[in-house]
Amino acid sequence: MKWYVIISTGLLLFCMACDNSSLIFSDDYTTENDRSTKRLDLSLNEGVNFYLIKDFIYGSEIQIDSVEMEDEPIISYHEIVAYDSTNHLFQLNFDANSFYTGDINYDQKGFVLMLDNEIINYGLFWSPTHSNIVDGVVLTFAFTDTLYGSCIELIEAYPSSKFSTKQVNLNDERLISRLATDGKLRSLVSAPKSDSGPEPLPGYLDTIYYYNEIFNIENQGVYGKWKLTSISGGITGGGYEPDFDYLEFIPYGIYQFVRADSLLEFGRVAIAEQTDDDLRITLKVDNSSTSFFSDSEKYIELSKGDVMNLIAPCCDRYNYHFERIE
């Protein structure tokens, strides 16, 4: 069996010359389009979607410039809960094992991974029960301890990346940017426990919402750990008894509510307004977090660096007052 690597401008494509039991990839373009931004004249769902290749026969050659996909995605963006870029895991909102064991078996079917109408990657659905080696991208069932049944794994080769003879980029920067912007980029595998000290709070660790700073320089003092001192406002004006201890802001644009060292909620900070005079934010709870803080739209007021107030933008809502501790 012989394998060949074909590297084109901005997009890594690969092919393999072998018997008819293997998939053959080719890069037989007939246009001068930039392959890194190759677009198909198809009506596709927006976001990150997986499509089956239409009329795909295992072992047949894929002409990437004329590939035909099924009309509807096999995995659509709203079904993707999260992506772990370190372990290349997609968490889905349904039983991922159904691809390989259900009445309609997608094992050894060709797929295309799309961002909007742009090809990001492609390869094979591949059951983890196979014993033969595939030197090419496969999408297989992931055996994870905490999320068993809901994850699929994108790998460079099967049964592991060490069998790959090619340079394959599974974390295309366009894919990562979109997932991060939409709050779907996070760690899905628990870090090993350490005996060197207390465990860090779970949740936001390894989560990326933004790759660049979202706050202006004068507003970056918001980052840190803030102790709740009092609550005011509401219909009576007297607030209510505090029901959490700390609010912490973490670069870039991450927040978490903590009570007695227990994580109540975490998510991303969305800037609603940022001018010389006003900073208004909305706290967007992460899809994998419990929901605790419902009054999520606030103005932030910073005073002398060690006092912070979250002020309600409208009537009969609550205001939260903090002192910096870190």
Would you kindly provide a written description of the structure presented here, covering whatever features stand out?
This protein is mainly β. Helix content is 4%, strand content 36%. It is built from 2 helices and 19 strands. Strands 12-13-14-15-16-17-18-19 form an 8-stranded antiparallel barrel. It starts with a strand and ends with a strand. The model is unreliable at 1-44 and 191-200 (pLDDT under 50).
Mean pLDDT: 77
Shape: elongated
With strands numbered from the N-terminus, the spatial order across the biggest sheet is 12-13-14-15-16-17-18-19
Beta fraction of the residues? 35-45%
- Backbone CA Rg: 24 Å
Tally of structural domains: 2
Number of helices: 2
Characterize the largest beta sheet: strand count, sense, and whether it forms a barrel: 8 strands, antiparallel, barrel
- Say how many strands there are: 19
Q: How are helices and strands ordered from N to C?
A: EEEEEEEHEEEEHEEEEEEEE
Poorly predicted tracts of residues: 1-44, 191-200
Helical proportion? under 10%
Question: What is the CA–CA distance across the termini?
Answer: 60 Å
Structural class: mainly beta
Topology diagram in text:
Blueprint: E1 2-8, E2 11-17, E3 24-26, E4 48-52, E5 61-63, E6 80-84, E7 89-92, H1 98-101, E8 110-115, E9 118-125, E10 138-141, E11 151-155, H2 173-181, E12 224-233, E13 246-250, E14 254-259, E15 262-274, E16 279-285, E17 297-303, E18 307-311, E19 318-324
Parallel strand pairs: 3-5, 9-10
Antiparallel strand pairs: 1-2, 4-8, 6-7, 7-11, 8-9, 10-11, 12-13, 12-19, 13-14, 14-15, 15-16, 16-17, 17-18, 18-19
